[in-house]
Amino acid sequence: MTLSITRRNITSRKRAESAIDAAEKLNESLNAFLQIDRTGALKRGEEIDNNQSDAPLAGVPIAVKDNINVKGLQTSCGSRILGPYKPPYDATAIDRLIQAGAVVIGKTNCDEFAMGSSNENSAFGPVKNPWDLARVPGGSSGGSAAAVAAGIVPVALGSDTGGSVRQPAAFCGVIGFKPTYGRVSRYGLVAFGSSLDQIGVLARNAKDAAAILQIIAGRDAHDATTVEVPVPDYIGETEKNLGAGFRLGVSRALLGEGLDDEVRRSIEDAIDAYRELGAEIVAIDLPHAKYAIAVYYIIATAEASSNLARYDGVRYGFRAEDAPGLRDMYRRTRDEGFGAEVKRRIMLGTYVLSAGYYDAYYLKAQKVRALLRQDFDNAFKRCDLILTPTTPTPAFKFGDKVDDPLAMYLNDVYTVTANLAGIPGVSIPCGQSAAGLPVGMQLLGPYWSESTLVRAAHAFETIRPFTARPQVRADADGG
Amino acid sequence: MPITEADIEKIAQLAHLEITDDERRMFAPQISEIVTYIEQLSAIDTSDIEPALGGLTPEGERTPADRVDEVQPSLGQRVALDQAPDPAAGHFRVPKVLG
């Protein structure tokens, strides 16, 4: 099947070269890439032209967030603590994409260890939003979102623990898809919150996102949390109609205070669009959603404090010099190697897991998490998908929230629920603010409803195509 | 309960972080504010609720996660030591442990 992202009129090598040229040309203004692999990608392009030209994703150039391992390329996770570390293996998702003929052109900038909502926490400078260089692209997958928005690559991989694919997608005017927990292998994704993390896809339209998901989804022996559920034909699903009797759940409580007026307007328009498509709009309630940020910042930080304990200077990466003893080496390596936000979260996580506090915080949070899951189970008895805003505001300016961690965390208010419940979600561009900044809407579905999500996303695109392009972008269609 | 700088120092010790005085002064009010925020959960009645099993879906709980106990290929010593800051005689060498 010829997909929209494969091309028959250009060689894979030439296509890779165009993407690389665009990435290099735009990197000074966007800082989206930490590494661009010209040599490797051109070589790979040639190999595909010679041997794999009919592979499903033959020649598709992709960018990969720098917390996902690509063999032979450095993995930094946006941090200094990994030093020059190069993984000796590919992440399963990468391996599958390479087998399918895709060409990795480079690794994208991100918030350090995927902790952040603005890409301001990278040790290597922030990524700029292609729509307005004075604004954040969102985070933590800011580089991947910017690369797709700017037309450097048609698709990119990110990771989503509390919204880190969906939120930058909304800020950058692209699609951001987070699968069900266990749909895509986490092998080779550097762990942040192991019960929350999923690799996700940034793309310019639903069909392209479906094409990538098709390849990377499925059980993997290397990741015991992946699940034995068949992978449907996601690409074929996008062509189907929404279906008679499609019910879209909307929670009015989520559209109230705290939501920017311009975002609200675009969301109301999106609801109207679904009405035009024949959907029945159903009022639903998620009573525990207001606690989601509190639950998330207990569970995610607790899991992070455990997952980041391995960065100790012993086996790879940065090691502090002249430490008199082992303990000093650990402490100095970690203090010098980690940035402020990472340290803050490690400490918070350590605190909520410490003796005397575990029951009050971590255990309590897991119980409220169960209540949130029940909320979604109940809602999905009455609707097929739920529509919410993706973010409370469009992209904000650099520096707006760096001094107020809690204010920064509140950006995630609509997205963390999906990670806590394990359900899939997608952000779709649905409008622009008066200043021309993209606005995203989010669709959430029950477990394993990726088919319904891509179908509903594609249907929306047909009646509300998002054709605006950012100021900063590749000249030719970099896809 | 407000988090003091002394609390921060204790937590940093547990987390193997040698934070500076400036960091301690910065982190204490920030972490204190976040902890106050998360304490709102104590108002929710969860007496009859079982804690969630992480992110697992029902299908995930049903997927068998074990494998046969057979030796499989692994990284090997050469690759494992390849990027060590201080490899020595097939080991990861570190500063002295005691004292």
- Residues in helix, % of chain A: 25-40%
Quote the distance from N terminus to C terminus of chain B.
36 Å
**Total beta strand runs of chain A:** 11
Q: Which shape of chain A, going by the Cα principal axes?
A: globular
How do the strands line up in the largest sheet of chain B?
A: 1-2
Q: Average pLDDT of chain A, to the nearest integer?
A: 95
Q: Span between N and C termini of chain A?
A: 18 Å
The interface involving the most residues is between: A-B, 79 and 57 residues
The Cα radius of gyration of chain A reads 21 Å
Q: Note poorly predicted spans of chain B.
A: none
Helix content of chain B: 25-40%
Order the strands across the largest sheet of chain A as they lie in space: 1-3-2-4-6-5-10-11-9-7-8
Helix-strand topology string of chain A: HEHEHEHEHEEHHEHEHHHHEHHEEH
Quaternary state of the chains: heterodimer
Describe the structure.
The complex is a heterodimer of chains A (about 475) and B (about 100). Chain A is an alpha/beta fold and about 475 residues long. In chain A, about 35% of the residues lie in helices and about 10% in strands. Chain A has an 11-stranded mixed β-sheet, sandwiched between helices. The longest helix of chain A has 22 residues, at about 360-380. The two termini of chain A are about 20 Å apart. The mean pLDDT of chain A is about 95. By secondary structure, chain B is mainly alpha-helical. Chain B has helices at about 5-15, 20-40, 60, 75-80, and strands spanning about 85-90, 90. Chain B is flat, with a radius of gyration of 23 Å. The model of chain B has no long low-confidence stretch (mean pLDDT about 90). At the A-B interface, α9, α10, α11, α12 and α13 of A face α1, α2 and α3 of B.
Quick structural overview:
By secondary structure, chain A is of the alpha/beta class.
